Amino acid sequence: MTKKENILIVGAGLCGSLLALRLGQRGYNITVYEKRPDLRKVDISAGRSINLAFSDRGIKAMKLVGLEEKVKPLCIPMNGRMLHDVEGNTVLAPYSGREHEYINSISRGDLNALLLDEAEALPNVTIYFNHKSTEVDFENCIAHFYQYETKSEVSKKADVIFGTDGAGSSLRKSYYLGKKFLFSFSQDYLTHGYKELSILPAQNGGYKAFKNALHIWGRGDFMLIALPNLDGSFTVTLFLSYAEGEYNFNNLTTNEKVLKFFTTYFKDALELMPNLIDDFFENPTSPLGTVKCSPWHYKGKTLLLGDSAHAIVPFYGQGMNASFEDVVEFDKYLDDSKDWETIFKSFEKSRKIDTDAIADLAIDNFHEMKGHVNNAIFREKRNLEMA
Ligand code: FAD
C-alpha cells in the first residue's frame, strides 16, 4: 500500500465526497466518478431529503477534515422536538437539559457542495460527473461506466475501488451478481413511504413556525415532520403507508382527499402550507428501506462505505452521520501501514456491529416518533396542568 496507488471512488454524494477529501489530504491519488451532473453548477435537487439532521458524529467528521468552522454557517441548531397534537397544541421537548446539546438542520446540497469544493481543491483529487457505474469487475479492479454526455461506455482500472454510490450501489450489485464469494445481502422495505412538502418563508423572510426545533406531528400510523432551512422555509416530510389505513399514498388521489386528510390530522401545519396541493402532486413518493450486507470488501481491492454498505430508515436522523463516521473510523486504520485487505477486514469487523445496531434502532424510533412520543408528552403536559 503506497500513496502512489490510484484510488477510484464511485459516487460523490455525502460519503464519497468526504472520503475523497480525507484520502486526498492523506496524499493518495483519487479519481471520483459521479452519476449525476455537478450539483454546484446544475440546478438539481441534491437527492433524497433536502435537509438533514446533522449530529455530533457528523461534526466529528468535519473536524477530521478541518471543516468545522466552514460548516457552522450552514447549520441551524434544533434544541428539541416541537410536538404538535391534532388540536394544534404544541409542546417543546428538549433533547437535553444542557443548552449546548442540540442537533442541527443542514441542507444536503450545501453540505455536499462544500465537501466537493474542498476535495476538488486538492491537486491529487479529480471528480468526473455524469458517469454512471454500470458494473464493477472487483476481481480485476475495473469499473465500467456509462457517460451520459458522450453516450458512450468507459472503463477505468484502479488499484483500489471504493463504492460510495448509495443504497442502490452498483459495486454491491456486482458482488451479488458476480457469485464469486459468499455474499450475504438483505433489503427490507417499510410499508410506509415518504413525500417531501414545504412551508415557505413568511412574507418578511422570517420563519412561520418556531425555528430551532424539529417539528413532529405524530398520528399513530403516520406522521409529518419539518426541519428548518436557512432561507426561512421548512422542509416537511410526510411518512405514510402506501396501501394500509383509511388514508394512504395509494388512495390520496384528489385535491379534496388530500385537503380532508390534512384538515383532519394536520390542521395547524396546513395553515402554513398554502402550496400543499402542488407539492403533494408534483413531488415523488419514495420508499424507505434497510440494507444490510457482508462482506463489505473483496480481498484488498474493493470496499463499500456509507449507504451502499448499510442504508437505514431515517427515523434516528443518523444515516448520513453514520456514513460520515465510516470515514472517521476507516481513517484510523490508515495510520498503520498494513495492506488494504487487513485494513478492510479490521474496519468492517469493528464497524458492522455499530451500523447493524443503528439500523435496528432507526426502525424502533419510527414507531416511537409516530405514536409514543406525542402521546406520552401530551399526557404529561395534561397531568401537570391538572395538578
Ligand atoms: P448517497 O447520499 O445516496 O450518495 C450516493 C451518491 O452516489 C449520489 O451522489 C449518487 O448520485 C451517486 N450514485 C448512485 N449510483 C451511482 C452509480 N451507479 N454510479 C455513480 N454514482 C452513483 N441521514 C441523517 O444523518 N440525518 C437525517 O436527518 C436524514 N434524513 C433522511 C431523510 C430521508 C427521507 C432519507 C431517505 C434519508 C435520510 N438520511 C438522513 C440518510 C442519508 O440521506 C443517507 O444516509 C446518506 O445520504 C448516505 O450518504 P451516501 O453518500 O452513502 O449515499
Describe this protein's structure.
This protein has 387 residues and is α/β, with parallel strands linked by helices. The protein has two domains: 6-77 and 106-186 and 289-366, FAD/NAD(P)-binding domain, CATH 3.50.50.60; 188-287 and 371-386. It is built from eleven helices and 19 strands. It has helices at residues 14-25, 56-64, 68-71, 108-120, 170-178, 255-265, 267-270, 276-282, 307-310, 319-333, 340-386, and strands at residues 6-10, 29-33, 51-54, 76-78, 80-84, 90-94, 103-107, 125-128, 131-137, 142-147, 152-157, 160-163, 184-199, 213-218, 223-228, 234-241, 285-294, 297-298, 302-304. The strands form four sheets. A seven-stranded mixed beta sheet has the order 6-5-14-15-16-13-17, sandwiched between helices. The model has no long low-confidence stretch (mean pLDDT 93). Residues 10-16, 33-36, 47-49, 52-53, 132-133, 164-166, 168, 170, 194, 237, 306-307, 314, 317-321, 323 line the site of flavin-adenine dinucleotide.
